[in-house]
Amino acid sequence: MFKHILVPTDGSRLSAKAVKQAVKLAKTLGARITGFYAAPDYNSTYYGDGYILRAPSAKAKAENAAKQARTCLSLIEVEAEVEKVKCDVFHAVSDSPYAAIIDAAKKKKCDLIVMASHGRRGLSAMVLGSETQKVLTHSKIPVLVCR
Length: 147
Fold this sequence. Notes:
The protein has helices spanning 13-29, 58-83, 97-107, 122-128, 131-138, and strands at 4-8, 32-39, 45-48, 51-54, 87-93, 112-116, 143-146. By secondary structure, it is an alpha/beta fold.
């Protein structure tokens, strides 16, 4: 059925639950998984109390994003190793995590996206929307949402 599963994570506890379920599903199906982390793209200048503060250099931002990605993606690698499921991981920097997730699934030729159902709640969810909802709305690849 499914042979290649994309597992996006943000490092949260709810994402960790989705990771465990995705790895178990991959083991049952004989599929492989690809872990993905969408690092935020921070603005280059900050203002406050009359001062203009410059953000770190592009190199420093890239190193910081890679460090955060390693932290978030290590759980996927560990879970996959325990269950003996083939696993690759990668990350990208994006202002739009949902678009980065969909692009990652297309680039890696995944046939399923497994992700947690979480994010903003209440009014902020109505105004800003959740990344899971946006992936569900815009993806042509099937999405399995883990509660």
